[in-house]
Amino acid sequence: MIHTRGSCVAHCWDSRLASVHWDGTLPGSSFEESCRLAWSWSRAPGTLSGRARGRLGEGVVQYLIIGAGMDSFAFRRPDLLQRIEVFETDHPNEQRKKLRRVRRAGLTVAERHHFVCADLCSDSIVDALAASGLDSTKPTFVSLLGVAYYLTPESLAATARSIAGTLPAGTRMAVDYLLDEASSDPRSRSVRESLVGLVERCGEPMRSSYSLDKMTALMSSSGFEPLETFAVADLNDVYREELGSLLFEIPGIFGMGTFRVVQQSA
Ligand SMILES: C[S@@+](CC[C@H](N)C(=O)[O-])C[C@H]1O[C@@H](n2cnc3c(N)ncnc32)[C@H](O)[C@@H]1O
């Protein structure tokens, strides 16, 4: 269902939504393997997004994906959409692009799959969701993956406060972000510079970076308590153990955390 607001009528990648055609079955070259591995770090069972899905089996009935981009969860899991509602929010321009691709690919939008546009630099996420059918009393998991990079700390805090002020105590939110220079692995300095330069040239500059402690402080002052925070590069060892060896080391420039809405004092 597409909820319109104002003048505005978002991986687990899906090749039907991606801008570059990649069917995920090309013969392994180190580049393709690298892409797959890089992508899997935030998606595999055992990591945050994987755990998010795990929690969908633990009484969560709403999945709120903020800055959904081309996330295709709702199209790939019609089984889960039998019992959960998925709410995707995104910047109006990106959501328009996604909806065009959805139509072009002939995908069916399920009744329980909602699209809401919200520019997090100027809109309150909760106001934007007001008419979408999101029920603030129901158990919800919130994903804010791949998005904090593009928000100022003020916009991120406003978004977090808005969620913490509306959804019940205990609601969990997964966030990933760019580590600040001091917290990044010095061996990954050139990767960090290249990434920041690349997205800037693509017209979507990164606007913030944090240490693990700074992110915890921002989230704590916005109504959340940390459940786990870690540098994503720490997953290299997990994957090395699983796979034997790695073609691609996750650079030490990303942080991740899951946070829980705390009980508001009366
Ligand atoms: C790198 S994509 C991440 C997409 C998806 N969450 C994922 O993990 O694959 C960044 C997303 O953040 C969204 N975004 C960036 N700035 C935004 C803003 N001011 N308001 C809303 N969404 C924004 C973009 O539109 C895009 O969908």
SSE pattern, N- to C-terminal: EHHEHEHEHEHEHHEHE
Count of individual helical segments? 9
Rounded to an integer, what's the Rg over CA atoms? Answer: 18 Å
Mean pLDDT: 82
Per DSSP E runs of 2 or more residues, the count of β-strands stands at: 8
Bound heterogens, unique: S-adenosylmethionine
Give the name of the CATH superfamily: Vaccinia Virus protein VP39
Give the overall shape: globular
Strand content: 15-25%
Give an overview in words.
- With 266 residues, the chain is an alpha/beta fold.
- It has a single domain (2-261), classed as Vaccinia Virus protein VP39 (Rossmann fold, 3-Layer(aba) Sandwich).
- The protein is 32% helix and 17% strand.
- The protein has 9 helices and 8 strands.
- The protein has helices spanning 30-40, 48-56, 73-76, 92-104, 125-129, 153-164, 189-201, 212-220, 235-243; strands at 2-3, 62-66, 85-90, 113-117, 140-144, 172-178, 224-231, 254-261.
- Strands 1-4-3-2-5-6-8-7 form an 8-stranded mixed β-sheet, with helices on both faces.
- Strand 2, helix 3 (73-76) and strand 3 form a beta-alpha-beta unit.
- The longest helix has 13 residues, at 92-104.
- The chain is globular, with a radius of gyration of 18 Å.
- The termini are far apart.
- The model is unreliable at 4-13 and 19-49 (pLDDT under 50).
- The site of S-adenosylmethionine (SAM) has 17 residues, from loops.
- S-adenosylmethionine is lined by residues 10-11, 67-69, 71, 90-91, 94, 118-121, 145-147, 150.
